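Z., the sequence and structure:
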Amino acid sequence: MAKHYGAFRAVDDLSFSVARGSFFSILGPSGCGKTTLLRMIAGFLEADSGEIHIGGKAMRGVPPNKRPVNMVFQHLALFPMMSVGENVGYGLARRGVAKDEIKRRVGDMLERVSLPGAQAKRVDQLSGGQKQRVAIARSLVLEPTLLLLDEPLGALDLKLREHMKIELKQLQAAFGTTFVYITHDQSEALVLSDHVAVMNHGRFEQVGTPQQLYYEPQTPFVAGFVGANNRMAGRATEVKGGIVTVTSAQGLVMPARAIGKIAAGDAVEAFVRPEVARLARQAATLTDAGLPHFTARVDSLLFDGANSAVLLHEAQSNTEFRIALPQTGEFADLTVGETVSFGFDPQRAVCFAADTTADEHVFS
């Protein structure tokens, strides 16, 4: 399916499917087309071309209120003048469901989202996480085939967002409803999802499990966007046994595993994650381990508990690298200005030809 605004391709000939009962995330930067795509699935926008099938039924011409879909927005859109129970039961009342049945279903739903007995509470009495659960309960009580979530955790503070990621994952597993979730936050997508589509300029760069996207990126954009990475541009000066020797303009020579077809002389981009590099005070440690290694100066220490890292400048080329600090305490006394060595297994780094251009629900 596609959606164009003049010459701008907001959604550019996408075709994909989402397995029934799965958690599927669409991950990408602002302006990549995520929200446009979600609004097309919901029926708020008509596709210029292509078809959308939900639960095996074609959706062309079906208005939003007739689709087996509900949507949770970033700002939740709860009705402040209504109680929690009235908010959750609103859609049922609009459908003409009997009051006793609404009361029963609302009570059951609030128990399932860990808000038992909250029917009479006002919305302004709830915490951010509780409001989030009410918004989800309001959608799930209608028993949709598909629940669309448009960056629903974006307005929460960091600690609550981390907590709600776990709650959302558990809720989806408990209900078995198909979730399609859009976000620009890679942590949300990786933690929550069965499968993730990485979106860029209206297209999916790669669709796979979180592990596949993280460990086996298929494009430079995915390698750079999913997880932290050290990126180096240069030329392939040698290609041997699937390993590319990359030489940067600054003179850094780095080995990395080839992804796709690469020939000697090609412009390339190489990526190595901070956690795959090994730090040592003595180069012999890395030599004994059989790792290609570099000498570097410690430029900055980035303390963040288990996510602590060090910024280094490689001695010969002055190239900056971010290296994760091990949690052994071995480098607890590391100081700025110190000279160290670092190295990595070339199979754990990836290299791409440089980008010179830069029972299912089916959407095609």
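The radius of gyration is 25 Å. The chain has a mean pLDDT of 90.

Let me know what you think.
H.
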